[in-house]
Each structure stands twice: as structure tokens, then as C-alpha cells.
Amino acid sequence: MKLIQTNKLVASVLITATLMGSVSSCKDQLDVGNPNAPTLAANVNNEAGLIAFAQGGVYVNGFLNGDGWLGNSYFSLPWGYSELMADNVGADASNNQVTTIGVPDYMILDDGSKLTNPAPQIGIIRAYNSRAATGAGNNPLYYQWLNMYALNNVCNQILDITGTITFSGDAASRANTLRAWAYWWKGYAYASIGSMYYAGLIADKSGVTDGGYVLHDVMINKSNDYYNLAATTLGKITSATDYQAVMGKLIPSFVQVGNGTVPTIDMWKRNINTMLARNILVNKLSPFVKSNPAATITKSSMTAMTAADWNAVLTLATNGIKKGDAVFTERSTPSNSPFSPTGGTVAALTSNVNTSSTFKISERFMQSFNAGDQRVANNFNTKTMYKNNYSFTTRYSMVPNGNGLAGVYVYGSRDVGAHEVYMAGSYEENALMLAEANMRVGNIETGLGFVDAVRAYQGAGVPATVGTKLTLAGALTELTKERRVALFSRGLAYYDTRRWGWIYDIANGGGSYGNVVITSAGTVINKNVTINYNFLDYWDVPADEAVLNGSSGGVATKNPNF
Fold it and tell me: Which phi and psi angles does 5 have, rounded to 5°?
């Protein structure tokens, strides 16, 4: 059993009066002092203290602490890497390897010429996976691991304390609400680690791990266990009034607008089903390379989706998030914010003139919209061109707050509280899982109906695909395009391009074809570029963990497939 190094990988729960809670009364919700061992019991010894601890521990430790290099939250940096590696955005900032992590190995242009990256991603990632590089803000592998193990540890503490507290009202319902909260976020943390890293550590006791490193698939299984435990615990709650009272305090008041209101018990169960479906979908191969639904990848850290997997996704998503369900979200606040409105999200860091924004919206992202899509008219312009000497040149800027088209989705904002971050699942994600699963089991028209529904929900205003007699290849083309644009900045982009096979070496069946790339100082628009990304599919364990704690048995901490 290993002690996780609390100075590095389990951030302290800095719950102070200046961070979260309601806009009008932050202190009342979060002023529980410093609830770290050995003084934890002294600070969290009643129901109000535990609820405040459970709120701050999740929102601060899990999604804020440690991400202050580029942007200032989990949703700006770890999710930023996802968008960069999916080639939805580019960047030339010098922080955290954002300039290098999304650069493909090579591109073959329309004229047959080849542009080669002299510093491939895999080499860069491994060269900077060191404790020294982490200290200098140059180790991209560090942040997601840091956040998610801090989140997991806080949840262990919540579970430890819940059994020692005297609750008001229906005590069992209130205690089970807190347990479900902890189980849900533990499921989330294990899913995040298992979906991104080749190996992880099981840590179900406060401050320690339960053995050596295990494969990412084991981490996903552990995530599933906790999601299911959250669902069964919710089923034990007999007082909806007490449930609502506790959840109304666990979720910060400023979040409880839009789609982020307190979910009913049934809504939360549907959120769980969506996340269980996601765990299957994003961690298995479903290659769609060069418009071929039967493509294969010969060297991967994942196994391929089976018919049983697709049917499992279909069953779970059918019982997943519905239109109008409350989901788990986060927002910025006027002061003492959980993250800043201008730097806390991928969306904020992209919402600006492309010559000034941290992230630059990519030409590959823009080509995923169909002609006439109102989301383009509402969110993007071509008033300026950002020029880059390799792949990031773009004609497009993302407009903060959109252009005012009624009923059309807005991609980003830099205004306080305006941008809603979907922390976990959403209606669009669930519907698009239903779309893809239906297509893959032979129900193409049904699947297309879900694609059309998402486009209608976001106000795209494009012709329906149902009834156009698309083949499976044609249907999957619409699906992949829509997942790319509808789920932008929701932490899923890289997982999609990985499972579709696009990030793998062309020599192993991967690659991306038919891409738009602007070259020659912005004067040549190539429209049929072949891109060989050749990215590391699952990241190595960060050196801050592997070096500090060693292997202690178990599987490799370095992805052996690359």
C-alpha cells in the first residue's frame, strides 16, 4: 500500500471563504477552515461542515487547484489538450507544451509535397515527463492526474466522515445523498484516469493506494463500479425533500441555472447511465478511417467494439440523459470565482480574434460544419487570418457571445457566468451515442434521426439527413462531423479521434484524410490533405507519481505500444 504524495498529487482542500458558494454569501457555504488531516475532524464535525467540505473538495480540488499555468481550471488545461490533439484548435503559446502537443508527424499536401514535424509528439511528451519539467510547467501529463486523484481523495474523506455525522431530517436520506455524491465523483475520477492514462492506481482509502499500477481497463471497471454504486445508493433515498435540501447545498447556488439545476433522483440516474455508456464508447476502437466503417488499427492500446458493446451503449443511452434533464455544470462568478471567465475554459481561451486568442479555431474543425449551418454564422467570422508555419494557420475567429442569432447555440463567452461548462454528460452527447450505436447495429435511419435532433437542438438550421438514403459510411460521416462540432470543449474530442483511428500512424491503419490546411504564409488553401498525427494513444503515468512512488508492482507505467 502506497501513500500518495500529498505535496504533489493530492492537492489540499483549500476551502476558504473566498472561493465558492453563492455569489451573495460565499462565506456561509464554504467557511470550514482548512479541513486537512490531522485537523479534519475538528473542522468537519457536523452536517453543515461536511456538506461545505463535500462541495469545496469537489469543485476546488477536483477542478481548480493546480491548473494555474495556462488558463486556470481543469476545463482550460486538461480539456485544452483534448481539443488540441483532436485538431479542433491550435496554439502557439509557450505554456505547458500546448504549441507541440497537437502537431502531427507529417502532412501530405494537395500537390503531393510533404511537411514533416521535426519534433514528433511522442518524443516531446516523453522528453518532458519529468519532475523538473512539471515544476517548470512543461509536463502535460501532470495536470489531469493531479486533479482527478485530488478529487478521488476528497471523496474518500467524504465517505469516511459521513458515517460519523449526526444528520437532521431524514438522516438516512441525507447521508445517502452525500454518499451518492462521493460515489459519483469517484466514478468520474476513475473514468478520467482510465480514459487518458495507460495505467493508474486504485485509491479507495484516504491518502493511500490499494496496490500497484493497473491497466486503464481496470480503472474503467472501477469507475463503472462506483457509478453503479451511486445509482443503487440513490435508490435507497426515501425522502425527496431531504435529498433536494442536501443537493441544493452541494451544488453551488450560482451553478443552479440553465441546465445545472438540482437533478431529481431519476435525472441523476440517467446521468449515470450516460457516463456508463461513455466509458464503453471512448475506451474501445470503432475505426472510421478514410470513410471506411470496416477500417482496422493494427497497433493500439484498446480492443475493438463488439456487437455486444454497441448494444450495451444503446441500452444505457436509451436510459440516459433526456432533453430537459438537469446535468452537472459549472460557471464563473463576479468575484471569488471557481475559475475566471476569461481563462477558465477552452471556450473562453478560444473566444477572441484569432491573432489574440490563446487557442485558434482550426480549419479542420470548421470543415465539419455542413453548408448553411447557422452555428457558423452565429459564432465565427473570417475578418482576420492567423498565420503559422505548419498546421495552425486559420481564417476563422470564434466570436465571444455569438452574433445574436435567436435560437442558435453559442460556443463561448468571456463574460461572467455566461458560459455553461458541461462537467459530465449532456443531452447532445447522449443523443449522439444513440445515433452512433444505432448506425453500428444496422439502424441507420434511426441513428440519423438523433443526429438531426441534435442539430435542431443547437439551432443548426440544416436539412435533415433522415430519408436521404445514406449508406453506413455516409451516416458515420455525418455522425463524426456532428460529434466534433456539437461537443466542442466538453472534454471528449481527443477520445473520439482516438477511437475512430485518426490519431494512429498511417502505417498501422490510422490517419486523417481530406483535410483543409492553409500553407505558404496563408496563400494556399489545400482541401485534400492527408494528416499523419501518430499520437500516443494512452499517456504514460506522470513522473511525479512514478518517480515519487515507484512501481510497487503492477503493470508498466510507460505505454509499451509506443
Answer: -70, 105
